[in-house]
Write a structure and sequence with these properties.
Layout: H1 3-8, H2 15-28, H3 32-50, H4 57-72, E1 76-78, E2 82-87, E3 90-95, H5 99-109, H6 117-130, E4 143-144, E5 148-151, E6 154-157, E7 167-168, H7 182-191, H8 196-207, H9 214-220, E8 223-227, H10 235-246, E9 251-253, H11 266-271, E10 275-281, H12 288-298, E11 303-305, E12 313-315, E13 320-325, E14 342-346, H13 355-361, H14 364-383, H15 394-406, H16 410-417, H17 426-439, H18 447-458, E15 460-466, H19 478-481, E16 487-493
Parallel strand pairs: 4-7, 8-13, 8-14, 9-10, 10-13
Antiparallel strand pairs: 1-2, 2-3, 4-5, 5-6, 11-12, 15-16
């Protein structure tokens, strides 16, 4: 009798349940006759060791459990709401299998031993519990390719079966295969304003997309933002190519401008995607809360998220963030905590290329060539001492300083009025800054940001001093001068 004929006799609850057990037999190389032979062999072995024949039902259950867990290891998993079988090098999802359905299946496999129903259900229950995994792979950092996988900063041939891989990319890695991706390299050079050093920096950050190690991401994680004041400069072309190479399922489109400003259920999708890209970042300021969340994602710190109608759960982000915008980056971040973590590249020219160039760029041949190229780069990085990436180029360093200044006009105030800060009263300096902003048509930053900048940039702190020790003593309001021994806060060296 064939496996299908045996299973049809069991009257499972649904076709999906039937398919589950059919494929479990197929992919685990499990059969009634084979299982009986292994049980009998184990019985004889135990008899040789103990001098007693194992024929009780409890002994049969125990031996069957040991054999089944060994044979099904790496082929069967359960979560709280789903069942999984490893079929043709990937985990296939099925509805959750009840222990009563598993008992029907085991009854047929163990029919020779006439086990009573309670014992069969008990065996089914402990068998399901043995293969339960709690995290659904969300804490795993494995990337499965078609012929190998990346885990713990190693590229390993074959298929990852210990748990569900966090990411599946439907591409082979061919170390000695074609790596000629001329058109995409041309696109990157264009986006980097023909700065080859910056292009190499960008290539290494693209390679780091495939290194999900928490410590690595904590040290090297970056958000990359392409800014171009007009359309047609290649930003959308870059995103389209990302989807072609890594698969649309691994490139999630999301708004990154307002993270944390509302109950954002999208956050769970963002942090569990290999790449999250904001394709139309607005001109609005990134709030302090948004910046804090972005930094948490970039550095791979564990964070709480929840899906709609779901309970909050702790997840480790694996995402590399990209943003495309026609507007320069602006932030109300008061601590500059993101300045190391965000790189904005200002693409200044239009992308003017022939139709044949675009055709070659978006070909499957180019996508696979770039994937081979970037995987080679991953291997190169992982072989370096401490897996170090390239430092910021001159262009990137200068650009970060430009952004720092455009987001903090206190720095310009220091440049112009720096000789009227140290030794002057806090009141006087604040008034001078207000005048500076009014004259230059600038929006004055808040007190916290202003004070923090003076502390960091000039090494100053607020200390109480006597009035007659102030450099602005003669500009002190007359109401305060009545008592020269009174004290007032001033900016002084720490």
């Amino acid at each position: 009798m064939t496996n299908d004929e045996i299973l049809k006799q069991l009257c499972f609850e649904s076709q999906e349940t039937f398919d589950f057990f059919k494929n479990l037999l197929k992919y685990s190389n499990l059969s009634e006759q084979g299982l009986i032979e292994e049980i009998e062999f184990a019985r004889l072995k135990e008899m040789e060791l103990s001098g007693k024949l194992c024929n009780r039902q409890d002994d049969t259950i125990r031996i069957a459990f040991d054999i089944l867990t060994t044979k099904l290891q790496g082929n069967l998993k359960f979560t709280t709401d789903k069942s999984f079988i490893f079929e043709e090098n990937k985990w296939i999802t099925y509805p959750l299998i009840k222990d009563t359905e598993m008992a029907k299946f085991l009854y047929k496999l163990l029919i020779r031993y006439t086990l009573d129903l309670k014992k069969l259900i008990h065996l089914s229950s402990i068998l399901i519990k043995f293969f339960v995994t709690k995290d659904n792979g969300k804490k795993d950092t494995t990337i499965q390719l078609d012929n190998c996988y990346i885990k713990n900063k190693k590229i390993i041939e074959g298929y990852y079966k210990e748990n569900f891989p966090r990411v599946v990319i439907k591409r082979k890695y061919e170390p000695n295969g074609n790596k000629d991706c001329h058109e995409f390299m041309d696109l990157l050079l264009h986006l980097c304003n023909n700065d080859e050093d910056t292009r190499e920096w960008l290539i290494e950050r693209m390679a780091s997309i495939l290194i999900l190690d928490v410590k690595f991401r904590s040290k090297w994680g970056q958000m990359i933002r392409f800014y171009g004041p007009t359309g047609g400069n290649g930003k959308s072309t870059f995103v389209k190519f990302l989807r072609l190479v890594f698969g649309s399922n691994n490139v999630y489109s999301a708004s990154l401008d307002n993270l944390g400003t509302k109950n954002n259920y999208d956050l769970s999708n963002i942090i569990n995607s290999l790449i999250a890209v904001d394709e139309d970042s607005t001109e609005s300021y990134y709030s302090t809360q948004t910046m804090a969340l972005q930094k948490t994602i970039i550095t791979g710190e564990t964070m709480s998220t929840r899906e709609i109608y779901g309970k909050p759960e702790q997840n480790t982000p694996i995402t590399t963030l990209f943003a495309m915008s026609n507007f320069e980056y602006l932030s109300e971040d008061k601590t500059d905590s993101m300045k190391r973590r965000l790189t904005e590249i200002h693409t200044e020219g239009l992308l003017v290329r022939s139709d044949s160039w675009f055709e070659k760029l978006f070909s499957e041949e180019q996508a696979q060539a770039f994937f081979n190229f970037i995987m080679n780069k991953v291997e190169e990085i992982l072989k370096r001492p401490n897996q170090a990436l390239l430092n910021d180029t001159n262009y990137i360093s200068n650009r970060k300083e430009e952004l720092r200044r455009s987001n903090n006009n206190v720095l310009d105030f220091i440049d112009v009025c720096g000789d009227k800060i140290e030794g002057y009263s806090v009141r006087y300096v604040a008034n001078e800054y207000a005048k500076f902003c009014e004259i230059n048509d600038l929006n004055a930053l808040g007190k916290i940001k202003f004070n923090q900048t003076l502390k960091v940039e000039l090494g100053l702190t607020q200390k109480a001093v006597r009035l007659n020790n102030l450099k602005d003593y003669y500009e002190t309001p007359s109401s305060l001068l009545e008592n020269e021994n009174s004290v007032i806060k001033a900016w002084l060296k720490k």
